[in-house]
Design goal:
Rossmann fold, 2 domains, about 30% helix, alpha/beta, six-stranded mixed β-sheet, 8 helices, four-stranded antiparallel β-sheet
């Protein structure tokens, strides 16, 4: 049974709150994440899970609360601040340039250049092959525009970009939405590899089965508040469903 890890969390979000137009979107919520762990965030649309994580990714500035990384308080006011703390977000849209190949996407805006100042495509492809060998050894389509790649392969490119630029904390927003079973399995294997490399992952999910399969712990939110955090191997799908619908922690988890 995977009990909660010990030691210093990669991330602690303490007593986070934010309101929009007088509505408490997130109300005094705390959560933490350890190296090599996946924590799922579940709840109905509007429950506050995405809003909570957007305070970590720098999209929103909290009204109250504190974020600690490696046990030290940090200020995150925008995505640049988040990136400086090695926090990367992989959105559902993946933010890839469809007409470019994997290497050009990996280094988009951060291209490698030769001593003469020209873009060094050879070096970028070589680095892309190295990182892909680590993350997804079956990836072979280095010359194709990413528009020609499958959903799982596109996910690999987006993840490789985050990992190459030293992400330690990864936020993934429904990474398997709209993927078939084979592709979903591919993303599951990618997540396992990232865990082995010691990254911590926050997974925003709607699908309870994915949470049970991919996550170590799960936090359910309802109406901007935390219902509770559970170890997924100590609860059933129905327990988590009850948390989402009823807003109550299962007896087994107390």
């Amino acid at each position: 049974m995977n009990k909660k890890p010990t030691g210093t969390p990669l991330v602690e979000m303490r007593n986070m709150s934010i309101s929009f137009g007088g509505v408490h979107a997130v109300d005094d919520v705390s959560i933490d994440l350890y190296p090599g762990e996946v924590v799922g965030l579940l709840g109905h649309n509007g429950a506050g899970k995405s809003t909570l994580i957007k305070m970590l990714s720098g999209a929103y500035t909290p009204d109250a609360g504190q974020i600690l990384i490696d046990g030290k308080p940090v200020e995150i006011h925008n995505p640049r601040d988040a990136r400086a703390q090695n926090v990367e977000t992989i959105y559902q849209t993946l933010a890839l340039a469809d007409n470019l190949d994997a290497a050009s996407n990996l280094f988009l805006g951060r291209e490698l250049v030769t001593p003469m100042g020209f873009v060094d495509e050879g070096a970028m492809e070589s680095e892309t092959r190295k990182i892909m060998a680590r993350l997804n050894p079956n990836f072979k389509k280095f010359k194709d525009p990413v528009s020609a790649l499958s959903g799982g392969q596109r996910q690999s490119v987006a993840i490789a970009r985050a990992v190459y630029f030293n992400a330690r904390i990864l936020i993934m927003d429904e990474p398997t939405a709209a993927l078939g079973p084979h592709e979903t399995q591919m993303v599951a294997e990618l997540i396992e590899e990232l865990k082995r490399q010691g990254l911590g992952i926050f997974l925003i999910e709607h699908d309870i089965h994915n949470v049970m399969k991919l996550c170590d712990r799960a936090m359910v939110m309802k109406n901007g508040k935390s219902v509770g955090t559970v170890n997924v191997d100590e609860v059933t799908d129905d327990d988590i469903l009850g948390m989402i619908i009823m807003g109550k922690k299962p007896e087994a988890a107390y």
